[in-house]
Amino acid sequence: MAGRSTGLPTQKQVIELLDGEFVRAGYEIEDVLIDARTQPPRITVIADGDHPLDLDIVAELARSASALLDGLDSDAPYVLEVTSPGVDRPLTTEKHFRRAHGRKVDAELGDGTTVTGRLGQVSDGAVDLVVRDRGDWAVRRVPLDQIVKAVVQVEFSPPKPRELELAGAAGTEAGA
C-alpha cells in the first residue's frame, strides 16, 4: 500500500484523536506515554475525571481508543493501556484536589511543615483538611498556593465516620 506510514502516532496525535471520546465519557486525558523501546511499543493513556475510573470504564475507553488508533494511517503494532494517574501522582491543581475529595493526603506546606488530613471541600483557591487536633477532628482551611506538595495516601483501614462527615464525604468510598 503506497503512502502508508509505518510509524507510531505522536503523543500530540494520540491526544487529538482520543480527546473528544474521553470528554464524552466524562474524563480528561492527563498524559500520553509512548514507549517505543518495548516490543510491541506501548501507548499508555492516563485519564482522570470527577468519577473514578473503574474496570468497566477502562475497558470501554480502551475499546474506543483502540478503534480510533487502528483507524490511523499506520500499520505499526502497539499495546494500548488506559489507566488512571495513580495514587502516587502529586496533586498540583485545584481539580486534582477536588477529584481526591474524601481521600487522606500528606501535604507539605510552604513554611516547611507537613500536615496529614482528609480532603474536604475545595473552593476559592483553598482546601479544607480534616486533621486530628488535640485528640479530636477539626477542619483546617489551607490555601492551595501554600501547598508545596500533596500526595494521596494509601489507606488499609476505613476512615472514622466523624472524619468523613467533616470532609463532606459521608457515605462515599473515600478510602477505596
Automatic annotation (TrEMBL):
What Gene3D superfamilies does the entry give? RimP-like superfamily, N-terminal
InterPro entries found in the cross-reference section = Ribosome_maturation_RimP (IPR003728), RimP_C (IPR028998), RimP_C_sf (IPR036847), RimP_N (IPR028989), RimP_N_sf (IPR035956)
Q: Which species is this record about?
A: Mycolicibacterium sphagni
**Record's keyword terms, sorted:** Cytoplasm, Ribosome biogenesis
Q: Which PANTHER family match?
A: RIBOSOME MATURATION FACTOR RIMP
Q: What does this protein do?
A: Required for maturation of 30S ribosomal subunits.
Main localization of the protein? cytoplasm
Q: Outline the extent of the Ribosome maturation factor RimP C-terminal domain.
A: 91-156
Q: Where in the cell is it found?
A: Cytoplasm
Record family assignment = Belongs to the RimP family.
Question: Where is each Ribosome maturation factor RimP N-terminal domain found?
Answer: 24-88
A cellular component term (GO) from this record? cytosol
| The protein's name in its UniProt record | Ribosome maturation factor RimP
The alphabetized list of GO BP terms reads:
ribosomal small subunit assembly; translation
Q: Can you tell which superkingdom this protein's organism belongs to? A: Bacteria
Question: Do the record's keywords include Chaperone?
Answer: no
| UniProt cross-references to HAMAP family, sorted A to Z | RimP
Name a Pfam family for this protein: RimP_N
